[in-house]
Amino acid sequence: MLFFKKKKEDEKAEDVKPKLSMFEKLASGLHKTKANILNKLSSVFTSEKIDEDTLGKLEEALYTSDIGVKTTDKILEEVRKKIKSGEEIANIKDLIKDVMVSLIKTDERREIKIAEKPHVILVVGVNGNGKTTSIGKLAYYYKNKGYKVLIGAADTFRAAAIEQLEVWADRSGADFVKNKMNSDPAAVAYDSYKAGEARGADIVLIDTAGRLHNKVNLMNELEKISRVLKKLNPNAPHEVLLVLDATTGQNALSQAKQFGRTSGVTGIVLTKLDGTAKGGVTIAINQELDIPVKFIGIGEQKEDIQEFDPESFVRSIFE
Ligand code: GDP
Ligand code: MG
Fold first, then answer.
1. Distance, CA 141 to ligand 1 centroid (Å)?
2. Which of 35, 87, 107, 301 is surrounded by the fewest CB atoms within 10 Å?
């Protein structure tokens, strides 16, 4: 009796918990990155004047903030331009923020348009980066937008991977298609498409394996999945999302360069931003690759994914 009473009270407490806005959630997810970048820049912010010495400090702080060489050079160039023109720099923090925002302009390819049914999203990336979790969160995200979602378990390498995905399908209210462990991933992709079509799914999300040790086989496998899907619908997969782990910093950037070349990646999901001070790498990936960051992961719960909005991202660090 007591137990039930307690449970009810808990539920009530949950109901009245203030909901964070998207921006507040983003800012809270990025707090380690914010602390890191602002800490590195603190001696620049407190400088009395912007001289060569301050510019040196600025350069060093930016180079070690994971935002990448291109972005760093651009910021320095803009600051120098202002100094040269004799214009007074009232607030160096705002200047850096404004330059960053103007650099990472919105890319119209960022938006995922659901044009035909089923819209197939193939999710690829190295093991441990957060593919399965991101699929679960994306399923929930799209369900909330009113779409019917189906998840296909084409990472057939481990039984536990299939089970983990099934838990996420339950949690997000998505349909689920699986086959036996070690079955052909392309066959699962095929079945998932067919099931999605038959059941009227708007979106089919397909999980894949990401073993590192045999990269050639992995790429062949991903290409085979795409080929099989193309036979069913020449537009499928409509989207190939590469999942990258932000906690690996510059390594995420190099993985993006490798994968991006071979498997027709159309967008990036950058995960675990909540657990790292290296979130500046989001800016580097966005600037140095021709593949837009489409989603960011900021936690392990089903609601912890957001569409990447560059301006909010920069503002959450500098404001
Ligand atoms: P996969 O091997 O690529 O499928 O990776 P998983 O989805 O299994 O994720 C690996 C680990 O990263 C799990 O423990 C997840 O809970 C964790 N993870 C994934 N995304 C996030 C995120 O955005 N934030 C945090 N803190 N952890 C995450
Ligand atoms: Mg997985």
1. 16
2. 87
Per-residue tokens: 3: 């137990």
Nearest CA to ligand 1 atom 5: 130
Q: Which CATH architecture has domain 108-318?
A: 3-Layer(aba) Sandwich (3.40)
Dist CA 141 CA 286 (whole Å): 22
- CATH classification for the domain delimited by 25-103, as one of 3.30.70.1230, 3.40.50.1580, 1.20.120.140, 2.10.109.10: 1.20.120.140
pLDDT for 175 beyond 90: yes
Beta carbon of 132 within 6 Å of any ligand 1 atom: yes
Band (1; pLDDT cuts 50, 70, 90)? very low
Q: Return the best residue to mutate from 31, 300, 301, 305 for the ligand 1 pocket (most ligand atoms within 8 A of CB).
A: 300
CA distance 303 to 305: 6
The residue-averaged pLDDT of 24-35 equals 96
Q: Across the strands, what pairs with 121? A: 205, 239
Query: Ligand 1 centroid to 179 CA: how many Å?
Result: 23
